[in-house]
UniProtKB/TrEMBL annotation:
Keyword ATP-binding belongs to the record: no
Gene3D superfamilies hit by this protein: 3.40.50.140, Topoisomerase I, domain 2, Topoisomerase I, domain 3, Topoisomerase I, domain 4
Region forming the signal peptide: none
Pfam families: Topoisom_bac, Toprim, Toprim_Crpt
Ranges of compositional bias, category Low complexity: 647-661
First-level EC class: isomerase
Reaction(s) this enzyme catalyzes, per UniProt: ATP-independent breakage of single-stranded DNA, followed by passage and rejoining
Entry EC number(s): 5.6.2.1
Boundaries of every Toprim domain copy: 2-134
InterPro entries (UniProt xref): Topo_IA, Topo_IA_2, Topo_IA_AS, Topo_IA_cen, Topo_IA_cen_sub1, Topo_IA_cen_sub2, Topo_IA_cen_sub3, Topo_IA_core_domain
Domain Topo IA-type catalytic per the UniProt entry, residue ranges: 151-599
Matches recorded under NCBIfam families: PRK07726.1, topB
Protein name: DNA topoisomerase
Length: 759
């Protein structure tokens, strides 16, 4: 009998067949040779069943039917690909062994596991685990097939992730949707990501720009001219800045301090998927999904880069030989000049910025393969060019600079100058000229303290006097945080752990962050599809529906749903399960308990008014039959629900835009009762604070959103209204010393706040 090879997609199956069975007959849905039958899964052939598969009553969304917690999870075939699943089952009956050739990762492992479960495959299984689809890698992979048992813990982690996401997504989405009569999608990853965008917009809205003045002086000593920025207290009055400029202009000064040190800049890390997506967004404006699709095409169809869905920026010792062969290959083609100028000796196992096996798990960094590219589209060429140039940069020495720091004193005023004098371009020769100029302009626009000199040397003599040629007062303003782009959001998703206090959780987030490299693009697309965010050029903006979703979740007392902390806890535990260091059943028990607590808290929440969502259509329980918060394994009901959400947003663009403006007090949601005596008002949110809706009747109660350097969050507001104080918070004195204190509601009539320090 023959061996059945199951790949994840048709292109992968055909590529594998070309190596292991080059004379195989093409049977459309599979290829058959002398020893192997090669077929494929077409992605997810199966998924977790919708709730109504457990009980018909779940076809109608009813909060009283929640929570939905299956004793065991059912799986159902994807109706669009059920014929391919049937073919795999028939082929398996003709084989006495199976090779799992799905993607070498958690998701690929899960795809195969569901096929094996549904078809009740009993044959012994081997695992193909490779990082690119070149003939050499495939041949080597088949000579070193792994036992399936080696990946059992990874399979358990994949099942736990999928089932946990189902429990949270299905139950929380149905709870919030039915409670507030609006289609609200809630998910373990998408909701914390939405909260990142929400919090950034609130920071921007609360920001008050302050004007200040810099004094810029231009100096000359012999043949060297340079400029310096005045040091000292920030100047807020224009006349003070102009007085200083007048005082130093045309005067002689001295160099009070001069420091010189040699510095080196090393190449940026090799690409993982998230870093590639960020840079493609910044340079070409590509969305995360578009970059992923292009990279996947370069990997699957063109076979010119390695597996792109990686979270590693490093390689192992086994990759070094291939990297050197690829360098030789690049000497014959458009990158010939750069490849010939490279220094192969720089890439070796002792170079930890490249070769670091401890930082490689499933897959190494994205690398070019030994296959020459054929005809690539313009967009594919752009992504391939990024990968090639990043790869080549590591075969070049570091860029070298002299770092000059000069303090010039004139008429008692001190000016600081930073000069980066280029000595050796090093790896930066690999960066294309257009990108270099763009970065230079960006640095100039941002007025970086260290001015880079690339065309001349900087010579200064500390003992000699200097002359101030001119001086001017320049008006500036403090800038608010920038709105997220897809590139900066990806970075925030990757490093969301920086917002977490717990060290162990932060370490888990460093590796996984919010989502994984393979799922982050889909998460952003999901937020667009359900009407939570919109794109304004490259900028991501919240819709009223997205704003209200986060506010409702936080007001329900289930802040963990919108916090990176829960994702950090889950990713840490899932990682431990994949390594056999934690039990899947215990993890699932905790997820079920959390699901129960979410449902109970949402049931107690007051329904939001219709006007709170900024759109009127798409409300109500009609049209939600079978709707699902998931994207990969949901039935057609999900598409209907998402389409309804899309339609409601697109048909109400005007309503969305107008809703971005402050709403009237009649439209705002109550955040609690006004604590002012003899006042029956409720607290509502304004642009800069939380106030009483009876302000027209004379109530003066207001709590400003910023107090002592802290943003007063809705959760802190609830504590102030209910308990008269917040929990213990961290503050800093003017000189930077940290201390703990509570914000206390000192006056229940005016809303005045004070700090109560912990002794």
């Amino acid at each position: 009998m023959k061996t059945l090879i199951i790949a994840e997609k048709p292109d992968m199956g055909r590529t594998i067949a070309a190596v292991v069975e080059p004379r195989a007959q093409n049977k459309r849905s599979y290829l058959e040779g002398e020893h192997y039958i090669i077929t494929w899964a077409i992605g997810h052939l199966l998924g977790l069943a919708e709730p109504d598969a457990y009980d018909p009553k779940y076809k109608k969304w009813n909060i009283q039917d929640l929570p939905i917690i299956p004793s065991s999870f059912k799986i159902i075939p994807n109706p669009r690909t059920k014929d391919q699943l049937k073919i795999i089952g028939e082929l398996a009956k003709r084989c006495n062994a199976i090779v799992n050739a799905c993607d070498a990762g958690r998701e690929g492992q899960y795809i195969f596991a569901l096929i094996q479960q549904q078809l009740k495959l009993k044959q012994p299984v081997k695992r193909l685990w490779i990082s690119d689809l070149t003939a050499e890698s495939i041949s080597r992979g088949f000579s070193q097939l792994h036992e399936a048992a080696e990946f059992e813990h990874l399979t358990q982690a994949a099942r736990a992730r999928s089932e946990a996401d189902w429990l949270i997504g299905m139950n929380a989405s149905r709870a919030f949707t039915t409670r507030h009569n609006a289609l609200l999608s809630v998910g373990r990853v998408q909701t914390p990501v939405l909260a990142l965008i929400y919090d950034r917009e609130k920071e921007i809205q609360a920001f008050e720009s302050q004007t200040f003045y810099d004094v810029i002086a231009h100096f000359k000593q012999e043949q060297t001219e340079y400029k310096g920025i005045r040091q000292g207290d920030k100047l807020t009055a224009q006349e003070d800045a102009e007085k200083i400029a007048d005082a130093v202009r045309g005067k002689e000064g001295r160099i009070s301090k001069y420091e010189l040190k040699n510095t080196k800049e090393y190449p940026f890390k090799l690409y993982d998927l998230t870093l590639l997506q960020r840079e493609a967004n910044a340079k070409f404006g590509y969305s995360a999904k578009k970059t992923l699709d292009l990279a996947q095409a370069l990997y699957e169809r063109h076979k010119v880069i390695s597996y792109p869905r990686t979270n590693s920026n490093y390689v192992t010792e086994q990759n070094l030989e291939g990297m050197h062969k690829t360098l030789q290959l690049l000497k014959h083609g458009p990158y010939r000049e750069l490849a010939e100028g490279a220094q192969p000796a720089l890439v070796h196992k002792g170079n930890k910025s490249v070769c670091n096996p401890s930082r490689v798990e499933d897959h190494h960094a994205i690398l070019p393969t030994l296959k020459k590219p054929g005809t690539l589209s313009k967009e594919e060429s752009n992504i391939y060019d990024l990968v090639i140039r990043r790869f080549l940069s590591h075969f070049y020495p570091p860029a070298e600079y002299k770092q000059h720091t000069v303090f010039t004193e004139v008429e008692g005023h001190l000016f600081k100058t930073g000069i980066k004098e280029l000595l050796h371009l090093g790896w930066k020769v690999v960066i294309d000229d257009q990108n270099t100029k763009k970065n230079s302009r960006k640095k100039k626009d941002e007025e970086q303290e260290a001015e880079e000199w690339t065309d001349r040397s900087f010579e200064i003599h500390e003992a000699n006097p200097v002359h101030c040629l001119k001086a001017e007062a320049k008006e500036k303003a403090t800038q608010p945080p920038k709105s997220y782009t897809e590139g900066t959001l990806l970075k925030a998703m990757e490093s969301a752990g920086k917002q977490i206090e717990n060290e162990e959780l932060r370490d888990a987030m460093k590796e996984s962050g919010l989502g994984t490299p393979a799922t982050r693009a889909a998460t952003i697309e999901r937020l667009k599809n359900v009407g939570y965010i919109e794109m304004q050029g490259k900028k991501i903006v919240m819709t009223p529906k997205g704003n209200m979703a986060i506010e409702l979740i936080r007001r329900a007392g289930v802040e963990l749903l919108a916090s990176p902390e829960m994702t950090g806890q889950w990713e840490r535990r899932l990682h431990q399960i994949s390594k056999g260091e934690a039990e899947r059943d215990k993890f699932m028990d905790n997820v079920k308990k959390f699901t129960l607590s979410v449902i109970e808290k949402v049931k107690q929440q007051a329904p939001a008014p219709a006007s709170a969502f900024g759109v009127e259509s798409g409300r109500g329980s009609k049209g939600r039959k079978g709707a699902s918060p998931r994207s990969k394994t949901s039935s057609s009901g999900t598409a209907t629900a998402v389409k309804a959400a899309r339609t409601s947003v697109s048909k109400n663009t005007a309503a969305t835009k107008s809703a971005a403006k402050p709403r009237s007090s009649a439209e705002r949601v109550s955040l609690g009762s006004c604590p002012c005596s003899n006042c029956n008002g409720t607290i509502i949110e304004g642009r800069k604070g939380f106030g009483c809706d009876h302000f027209r009747e004379g109530c003066k109660f207001v709590i400003w959103k910023e107090f002592s350097g802290k943003q007063v969050s809705p959760a802190m507001l609830r504590s102030l209204l209910d308990k008269g104080q917040t929990q213990l918070l961290s503050f800093k004195t003017a000189n930077g010393a940290a201390y703990k204190a509570r914000i206390v509601l000192a006056d229940r009539t005016s809303g005045k706040l004070t700090l109560q320090r912990e002794e």
